[in-house]
Structure formats: C-alpha cells, structure tokens
Design a protein that fits this description.
heterodimer; A: about 625 residues; mainly alpha; two-stranded antiparallel sheet; 4 strands; about 0% strand; B: about 100 residues; 6 helices; globular
Chain lengths: ~625, ~100
C-alpha cells in the first residue's frame, strides 16, 4: 500500500470507532436513574416523616423499586385509614410495623444502589468522552498529513511532527505487522521521491534569469534592485515557470502593477497560479478586491489554519540557516485571509477601529486570535477596561507580547495602578516599548529616592504641566541614563550584575530554575480562585494587601504585583508545588532586587508576615 | 531599510531602529518602501520630524495606509495633538493610534 492509502485506511477505522462511541445512551440512562432517585427520596421522606402517610402511596409506586406483598400493604393501609380518616380505635400490629420498617430499609438500600450505578455510568461517559476527544485529535492530525502527502505541489519532506502523527498507526496494537512494514517502506519511498522532485533543495536559479523574467513583464530598475537585495532566498526557492504563470495571470486581470514589490516576490516564491486565481475570483465575487490586499502576500498564499500552520512552520526552519534567507517566506505566511476577516469582525464587535479595506490597524488584524484573546484576558485582569473605554484604546496593544509579565513590572516600578500614578492606562504602548534595562534602572531609582524625587526623574519637565511624558532617555536609546552607562549590551549586563542578585539562581531560592521552567512553559494568564484560600496566600492577603488596591502587595517599601503572585503560585500549586520557596519565587519573579531587598522579602514570605514595615517616606 | 536615510537618519539611527523593533516590524518596513515613504512624507509635512522615535515607539503605524493615518490625526486637528506628538510619540496613545 502507498503512504496515502495507509493513512486514509487508518482515518476510516478511527471514524468507525468514533461513531461507535455512543455515550448518549449512557447519558439518557443517567438522567432516568436520577429521576428514580428523586422519586425514591420523596417516598423515603414521606414515609419517614409520618408512617401514616403510607396509606396514600400506591402499591405500584413502591413495587416499582422493591418487592412487597400487595395484600400486606393493603391491610396496613386499611388500618391506617380506619384510624386516621374514620377515627376508629384500631392500631397496627407489631408484624405490620415490622413490614413498614422493612419497606423503608429496602427503599433506602435501593436508592444507594442506584446512586452507585449512576457513578459507574458517569465514569463510563467520562472515559468515552476522553477517548472520543483523543480520536478526534488523531483524525485531525492524520487528515492534515493525508492532505500533505496527497498534494502534488507540496515538496516538503516528512518531518518530526509528521512522524509523530504516523506513530498513531505504528503504536496501534490492532494495526497488522504487514501494514506497519508497508508504512515503513512507503515513508522511505515518499521522502526519496520528494527529494528527487525537490528543486529547492537540489538547485538554485541564476538571479539574472529571474531579473530577465521580471523585465519581460515590464518591471523596472527598482524591482530588479529589490530582487538583488533578496537574491539568496529567491534563487534558492524560485520556480520560474510557476512565476511566469502567476505574473501572466495577474497581468491578464490588470492588477500586476497594484502589488507591492515585497508582496509580489513573496507570492511568486510561495504561492501558485491556482491559489492566486482562486483568491482573485473569491475576492471579486465578494466585491473585496481592495488596494490594501495587494500589499498583504499571505492573503494570496495557501496559508492553512493556525493549528496546522504552527505545526508546519517549524519544519521550514533548517538548523543553521540564517533567518535573512527566509524573510519572504515569513512575510508570506503570517496569517490566512480567513483569520484576518475573522479578526476584523471580532475586534470591530468590541468597538475597536480596525479595517482591512481602509488598512487601519493592520498589525492587530494579522495577529493570531489566540494571542489577541490572551491579551484581552490579561488587560481585563489588570483593570485596563475599568479605567478606560475599549474603543479609545490603541488596537495595537492587542498584538503585544508578554502583556501580563510587563504589567507586573510596571506595577512594581510605580507606573501602573499606583496611588500616585497610573501612566500605563493612558499610555499602554509603554508595555511594548519599555526596554528591559529601564525596568532594572527604575527599580534601583525607586529604592534610592523618595516618591517626589523618583517621579521627577521618571517624567520630563512636562510632568509639571500635568502632561505626563516619560523622560526621553527612558523612551529612546540613550547611552547614559541618570549617571549609569546603559548604551551597549555589555554595559547593561555589567549594570545588572553590579546592582542586582539573580533570584533564578538556585543558591538564592532552591529549585528556582525549575519553577521558572514551569512558569515559562505554562505561561499562566490568570489564577484559580481557590488559591485565595491557601494558607500562605491568606497570610499575604492579611498582612500585605494594600487597601482598596487589588493589584498590589506592599512588603516593606516594595510594591509587589499581587496578580503576579497569585498567577505564578496558583500555576506552581497545580503542578503539586506549594512550598515556601515556590511562594518566594512567585513574589520575586521578574523583579530587579538587591540582596538587602531580597532578604527582606524572604523574611516576610517565609516568616509568615513577621516583617515590620520600613521607612514611611519612600514610595 | 537604507531608504530611511533620506529622512535625515544616519546609519547609526537605522542600526538603532533595527535593534529596537521586532523581526515582523522590520520586515514590514523593509518590504514596503513606497508606502512607508508616503507615511514618513506625511509626518514631515505636518512637522513630525522625530522619525526615529516614532518608528521605534509606534511601529504598528507602519502597517497602515497613509490616508488612514491622516484621517485619524486630522480628526484631532483642533487640538494640540501635533505638538504632543512632537514631544513624545507615545502620545499617539491618547488618540487611540
């Protein structure tokens, strides 16, 4: 069997298994059992409350659940009716009382049995749900791989991720040995075939031929110079016949001259006439052939949805390859057109001013939705939307990276949610532009100066006119800042080594490097509410929480981002780590601390709130 | 990004810009000389000559069309926004840009 057939056969098997995982029947059974339990509970309560109530319960209602003698029940009911409805002087016999007691006991036992049954059914449902979710993932991965191996225009070799997908077949005990052997040989054959066909690997195209091709389409010197500047990537990746097909098509539609140089080159390298023409027809039908789209090459390239794109993007990075040789590839594969449209709708619905057609705030439109949502949640958590209407915010802030971590640092240097200053809410771009060395510098200045002195340093003279403008040396690259040399990487490293300790070093906090590895991988954006009941956190909340400020702890003179502590400690605790060192790391993470301040925080955190606050005229 | 020289930027300035912005932003500026030039020409025309600071602080602006930028700035023409943008490009945040 060839590779594609083996993959397809496995996909078909998985679909059969998936469809047989019918846990709807279990769910219905659970609902029915719950109903029975409710009825039993009612019966038990009715009879327990007053045994005379048994006179009004039908034999059918009880015999549905337990076995009872109908005559015995009728006799009991006669006696009770005579006594309580006709006021006759009669009483139940000892035997009859025993029967009622037995009925109650058996009803209770039946209820318990049904409760156990529900538990077992729920376990089956949960197990089947897990299995079905795993099968869905396997089907998706195999289908993507099937598309790849079946695509005659895909010249990429099978990579590590593809082999991980194929392991679904290898590791399945129900796959016959013959199929496994066929799979191995078809994988080798597939890669050998691709290598033979792959012009990108085996040969390069003379750049003069490329320029001649573009000249024949009336491109002038500026385009030829552009080609020269990118000649390494172009000569390795271009297929001149594919290029001529694309340029001919675009020329026939009179749109060839509308494309920007970079966009056009990216398209001829990484797209094909079929994709380009389909996109053209699609845009024409939607009446969306807008000028801005001629500058976004990823719209004209067959970019798969993000999940697959992330999987295959890593395969295009060969070890040791200079990133400059893949610039046009990166430019061509930023985002799919469908994702951009989806982002536009999503962000517009939130009141943000974005538009593909007007080419407004394109950067955020080209940002993957996952990142936009992560940032939205971070800004919500850090109170940006409490202080300012979303429609007034610069949309670009939803494209920033490491938003939560940066907000923590801005809180800790007094530029966000500080009683005296909320600069970041007004100027959220600082999240993206504040250089890392400035966080170090401002941490030091904050400790060395009182509040007024500190803010007079941080803000320029315009601060006095109530127009907050950061000191220029904090927003531009200055070699000297407040007497410190911070121009080169070496000077910055020297400054950090001379002034701060490194809390990721295990000698200061045991296992700190492990905690950092976990937190970097998990990247917690929020925290579990249950963390607030943790004993260690409760102490912090009681001793160091700042009144009316949900964003700060204040330990001594240090402002600590409360959300940072909760996010990090909650994430570590989920991994089973909740000792004092984990808490100390959560408190100190990302901060620039001298040894004195670190030791103060250590005493406070490990000593369970024993630290006494220091001088009062510092921030 | 050598074309930025015509906007009174030195090679050192261009090196600073290259080192200060991320790869995506660099690519956008390198690949779209005509559009970026039209934006910079507009900034010069309204007195914003702090080009290096604007590129480093607000690289997102250079993904957009000059007419879109013009429209958003001109909306505030009856304020002192140009003066504020000359002082500090972070003031683009005040007008949601």
């Amino acid at each position: 069997m060839i590779l594609a057939e083996i993959i397809k056969s496995k996909v078909d098997d998985l679909y059969k298994t998936y469809n047989n995982l019918n846990f709807e029947a279990n769910k219905e059974k659970i609902e029915s059992l719950k109903e029975d339990i409710n009825k039993l509970a009612t019966l038990i309560e009715t009879i327990s409350k007053d045994i005379k109530n048994i006179k009004d319960i039908s034999y059918q209602d009880i015999s549905k659940y337990i076995s009872i003698n109908e005559v015995d029940l009728k006799n009991i009911q006669l006696v009770l009716k005579a006594k309580y409805e006709f006021n006759l002087s009669v009483d139940l016999t000892t035997t009859q009382l025993e029967v009622i007691k037995k009925i109650l006991e058996e009803l209770v036992e039946k209820k318990n049995i049904l409760t156990e049954t529900i538990k077992k059914e729920e376990e089956i449902v949960s197990k089947n749900k897990e299995e079905s979710s795993s099968i869905e993932d396997n089907i998706l991965n195999l289908e993507y791989l099937y598309e790849k191996v079946n695509n005659p225009e895909d010249y990429s070799l099978l990579n590590l991720e593809d082999f991980e997908t194929l392991s679904i077949i290898f590791e399945d005990k129900d796959t016959s040995s013959k199929v496994k052997i066929d799979l191995l040989s078809s994988v080798i054959e597939y890669n050998e075939t691709i290598e033979k066909q792959n012009k990108k690997i085996l040969s390069t195209t003379d750049i003069e031929e490329v320029k001649e091709c573009f000249r024949s389409f009336d491109f002038k010197e500026d385009m030829l110079k552009f080609i020269d500047r990118n000649k390494e990537e172009i000569s390795r990746n271009i297929d001149l016949s594919n290029t001529r097909e694309i340029l001919t098509f675009l020329q026939s539609k009179n749109i060839l001259d509308k494309f920007s140089k970079g966009a056009l080159l990216a398209i001829v390298l990484y797209s094909n006439e079929s994709t380009v023409s389909k996109r053209y027809e699609d845009l024409k039908e939607r009446k969306a052939l807008l000028t801005p789209l001629f500058e976004i090459p990823s719209i004209w390239v067959n970019n798969l949805p993000k999940k697959v794109r992330v999987r295959h993007k890593s395969s295009s990075k060969n070890k040791g390859e200079n990133n400059n040789y893949n610039r046009l590839r990166g430019y061509a594969s930023k985002i799919s057109y469908e994702e951009m449209i989806s982002n536009e709708q999503y962000l517009t619905s939130m009141g943000l001013n974005v538009s593909i057609s007007d080419k407004t705030n394109i950067k955020v439109l080209e940002t993957p939705r996952e990142k936009i949502d992560e940032n939205l949640n971070s800004y919500k958590l850090y109170g940006f939307f409490d202080s300012r209407d979303m429609s007034t915010l610069p949309p670009s802030m939803f494209s920033f990276s490491k938003v939560a971590d940066k907000c923590d640092k801005l809180i800790e240097i007094g530029l966000l949610h500080n009683t005296n200053n909320n600069y970041t809410i007004t100027f959220p771009t600082i999240i993206n532009t504040m250089r890392e060395e400035n966080f170090a510098l401002l941490s030091k200045l904050k400790r060395e100066n009182n509040k007024d002195e500190y803010y007079n340093l941080v803000f320029s003279q315009y601060y006095k006119r109530n127009i907050q403008s950061l000191n220029r040396c904090l927003t531009t690259k200055c070699s000297k800042k407040f007497g410190y040399n911070l121009g080169t990487i070496e000077e910055i490293e020297t400054f950090k080594q001379e002034n701060f300790m490194d809390q990721t070093d295990n000698k200061y906090i045991p296992n700190a490097s492990k905690y950092e590895e976990i937190l970097t991988k998990e990247n917690p954006i929020t925290y579990q509410d249950a963390i607030l009941t943790d004993e260690k956190i409760r102490v912090l909340e009681e001793q160091y929480r700042v009144d009316n400020n949900p964003y700060q702890y204040k330990i001594g003179n240090e402002i600590i981002s409360r959300l940072k502590v909760l996010r990090c400690y909650s994430s570590l605790k989920e991994k089973g780590i909740s000792d004092d060192n984990a808490l100390l790391y959560s408190v100190t993470r990302g901060m620039y601390l001298d040894e004195k301040t670190f030791n103060m925080l250590k005493i406070a955190v490990k000593g369970r709130g024993e630290y006494i606050n220091g001088l009062s005229n510092k921030i | 990004m050598d074309y930025l020289i015509k906007y009174n930027l030195t090679n050192e300035d261009i090196k600073d810009i290259t080192n200060s912005i991320n790869e995506e932003d660099r690519l956008e500026i390198e690949m779209n000389e005509e559009r970026i030039s039209s934006i910079l020409n507009y900034f010069f025309s309204i007195g914003l000559t702090n080009i290096k600071d604007i590129i480093i602080t607000k690289p997102n602006l250079f993904y957009d069309d000059v007419n879109s930028i013009k429209m958003r700035i001109e909306k505030y023409s009856n304020t002192n926004i140009i003066e504020l943008l000359k002082e500090d490009p972070l003031n683009f945040d005040l007008i949601g840009m």
